[in-house]
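Recall the central idea of this unit: under ordinary conditions, the amino acid sequence of a chain determines the structure it adopts. In this exercise we apply that idea directly, starting from the sequence alone.
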Amino acid sequence: MFQWRYQHGIQTSSFYLIPWDQSLTFRETSLFRDVFMLFRLTVLGCFLSSASSAATLSLAYDPERLALAQGVYCKQETVDTLAAPNTEAGEINLFERSPDFLAETNVIPALLGIGFGIKVETLDGAFYDPVEVTVTHPPFQHTGTTTQRYMSTIGGTGGSIVAYSFDIPRELAVGTWTFTVSTMDETLYTATFEIVAPGQAPNYAALCAGDLTS
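Accordingly, the structure predicted from this sequence is:
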């Protein structure tokens, strides 16, 4: 499901467009945290498969206007919802704080309790209102949904994140997911993620649960 957060008066989103604190950067972790995360993944026995190791971040955008980063995060607690009739759930979750990426990657295991998305910053301070967020993906079980969309904003004085979290089993659609963010006049960026079967990517869900034995 899409998710949003409010910051500096800008509405943000599970699909989401979410501002994060300006003090944060795309490289949010220290060397210690990087080493510690590697240790945790080693204990879990969750190594990247050859396919995910070879995968490259898939982004199409203008680097003179935007700074983007793809990643995976732990699902956030929601504080409210907004109606979004063209999404699977019919609403977007709102949450209080922007998620920290566990890793910058576009290879995501199909596991409940994790989310994935794109952090965005406009380099010239431009504010785009509205933008349409469109996500296409393999068919969901039972409903057959392949496309979801909603309206939001990006830019201004802070960053944003467009993202999705796996909340229910039918959302675990293995294959290519494509995020497209557009104004009425142009496509600002597109990003693709490869959702893979559990075992073909690190078990981020176990990290989110604090379980080092899974």
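The first helix runs from residue 31 to 44.
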